[in-house]
Amino acid sequence: MRLKIAICDDDAAQGAYLVEIVTEWAKKNRHLPELKQYADAKSFLFDYSGQKDFDILLLDIEMPGMNGIELARAVRSENSTVQIVFVTGYYEYFSDGFDVSALHYLLKPVEEQKLFSVLDKAAGNLNYRQRSVLLATVDGEIKVPLADILYVESENVYIIVHTVRGNYRTRMALQKFSEQLDETFFKVHRSFIVGLKYIKKITRTDVTMTNGESVPISRGLYDEVHAALIKYL
């Protein structure tokens, strides 16, 4: 797989170390990487503004000027595909990752095998994005990538598929549609299935998605939903 990977860290030695590990991982898995190293968010965004085609971002959080969380928000606001991994020495930023659908947090010093595992998951997610469903709507058949689906809502004999690019209504049973999904989705209510990657907040009564919308959780399902989310992360 061809992968364009950015490493953004103001510590040159740390950046070089990550380049070394990523290169070894790519060689081991027969990927073809294009690696770029940046010392700050500004220099990354300068390149990114030209061709917004990065696949994986390894971001330090504590950087001068714009920090890694702010950089991730800027990228995520227009790109739902890129796999974001934070590399940091601080635990306290963990909750901010929900806002940008971060794939993982790695604590410095980064262990090679842990980074290998995270990169495996990132590559798998990117490959998964190629999977789509074909929805028959009033505007014709529309191809929707599974990875773009926020949640699915049942409405009588129809379902409404809420995605990062818009909503689509089609005549289909929720159970029938669920057969096309995998473990990155969870049925939180008899009328709702959510994409775990887009959950921003969870309570015992509902989940808040990254677009701000709320989806109810059936009574007694909180523990199962919470466990599924932790497993996904």
Protein described:
The longest helix is centred in the N-terminal third of the chain and has 18 residues, at 12-29. The chain contains six helices and 15 strands. The protein has 233 residues and is an alpha/beta fold.
Estimate what percentage of residues fall within beta strands: 25-35%
What is the N-to-C order of secondary-structure elements (H for helix, E for strand)? EHEHEHEEHEEEEEHEEEEEH
Q: Could you tell me the radius of gyration in angstroms?
A: 19 Å
Helix content: 25-40%
Q: Based on helices, strands and strand pairing, what is the structural class?
A: alpha/beta
Shape: globular
Cα-to-Cα separation, first versus last residue: 23 Å
Q: What is the averaged pLDDT score? A: 90
Strand order of the largest sheet: 2-1-3-4-5
Main beta sheet strand tally, sense and closure: 5 strands, parallel
Low-confidence stretches: none
Put simply, the count of helices is 6
Tally of strands? 15
Task: Write a short abstract of this structure.
With 233 residues, the chain is of the alpha/beta class. It has helices at 12-29, 41-48, 68-76, 112-128, 174-178, 222-232; strands at 2-8, 32-38, 56-60, 83-88, 104-107, 132-137, 140-145, 149-155, 158-163, 166-171, 185-189, 192-195, 199-202, 206-209, 214-216.
